[in-house]
């Protein structure tokens, strides 16, 4: 019985992937729905593989219910990506035709799309969506689909009202004042990277650094970077110069924002006062073009 069901699932997977290929022609108006269809395909593939494992190992077929529960849990976690599919137009309540259901993120019916001026997008928009590097405003970027080229960390250590900063000697931001930090290696967590990078650049080892936020940077050159912000008040060691940085202490009220990245002045005070942040930025080299900052409950 399970073997027959699994064979049907295989053909359903093929069908969903065909739909996903069909959506390529409508990327300008249905990128989110294409990603949603791909997620459906992944969930079906998970089901197919789990059922196959049960059959190959001659396990009780009743385990299929546990497999389905696991897949359902994954689907629940990513439910926001699936809820974009609507059966009826949210404006007039008309049942959607196949084209509107599958290819338009707005889920509007044909009549409502014409009224809203969306219909012309299908013929006038380019085959591929605008690359984030061409955006001039953070609202032009779909941050849910945006992916960084690299992920890094930055760690602020505070002692008696002063913050440990560095004059950066190498890499991105060379010549600027910043906090110690760097790229995350494949075999470590963000917190482990924050400890390692701080120790390597300053000789100081932060103890139990607290995660205070995420910063997302899109550069007009095409480079994309995500940074995790950490904060610590306990540490061991004394600051010492290294090949990467010259560390120094500065009172919080005397932060040298004029020598730091332009975005720091907008979110760093919140972090240093105990808050959490989530930031979205567009930079043209070292010049900030656009920003959006969420704090506390709005932040991740």
Concise overview:
The protein is of the alpha+beta class and 300 residues long. The protein has two domains: 2-129, no CATH class; 150-298, Nucleoside Triphosphate Pyrophosphohydrolase (Alpha-Beta Complex), CATH 3.90.79. 36% of the residues lie in helices and 23% in strands.
How would you characterize the overall build of this protein?
The strands form 2 sheets. Strands 1, 2, 3, 4, 6, 7, 9, 10 and 11 form a 9-stranded mixed β-sheet that branches. Strands 5-8 form a two-stranded antiparallel sheet. It is α+β, with helices and mostly antiparallel strands. The protein has 2 domains: 2-129, no CATH class; 150-298, Alpha-Beta Complex (Nucleoside Triphosphate Pyrophosphohydrolase), CATH 3.90.79.10. The protein has 9 helices and 11 strands.
């Amino acid at each position: 019985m399970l073997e027959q069901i699994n064979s049907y699932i295989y053909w359903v997977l093929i069908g969903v992937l065909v739909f996903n290929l069909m959506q390529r022609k409508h990327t300008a108006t249905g990128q989110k729905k294409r990603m949603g269809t791909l997620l459906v395909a992944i969930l079906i593939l998970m089901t197919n593989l789990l059922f196959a494992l049960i059959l190959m190992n001659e396990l009780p077929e009743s385990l299929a219910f546990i497999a389905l529960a696991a897949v359902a849990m994954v689907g629940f976690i990513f439910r926001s990506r699936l809820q974009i599919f609507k059966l009826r137009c949210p404006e007039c309540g008309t049942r959607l035709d196949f084209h509107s259901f599958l290819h338009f993120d707005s889920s509007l019916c044909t009549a409502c799309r014409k009224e809203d001026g969306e219909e012309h997008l299908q013929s006038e928009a380019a085959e591929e969506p605008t690359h984030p590097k061409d955006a001039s405003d953070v609202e032009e970027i779909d941050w849910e689909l945006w992916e960084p080229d690299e992920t890094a960390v930055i760690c602020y250590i505070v002692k008696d009202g002063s913050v440990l900063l560095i004059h950066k000697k190498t890499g991105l931001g060379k010549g600027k004042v910043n906090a110690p930090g760097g790229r995350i290696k494949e075999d470590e967590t963000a917190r482990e990277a924050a400890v390692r990078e701080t120790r390597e650049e300053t000789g100081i080892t932060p103890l139990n650094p607290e995660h205070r936020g995420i910063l997302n940077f899109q550069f007009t050159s095409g480079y994309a970077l995500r940074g995790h912000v950490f904060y610590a008040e306990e540490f061991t060691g004394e600051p010492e110069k290294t090949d990467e940085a010259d560390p120094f202490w500065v009172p919080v009220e005397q932060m040298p924002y004029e020598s730091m990245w332009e975005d720091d002045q907008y979110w760093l005070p919140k972090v240093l006062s105990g808050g959490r942040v989530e930031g979205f930025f567009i930079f043209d080299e070292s010049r900030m073009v656009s920003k959006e900052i969420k704090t506390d409950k709005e932040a991740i």
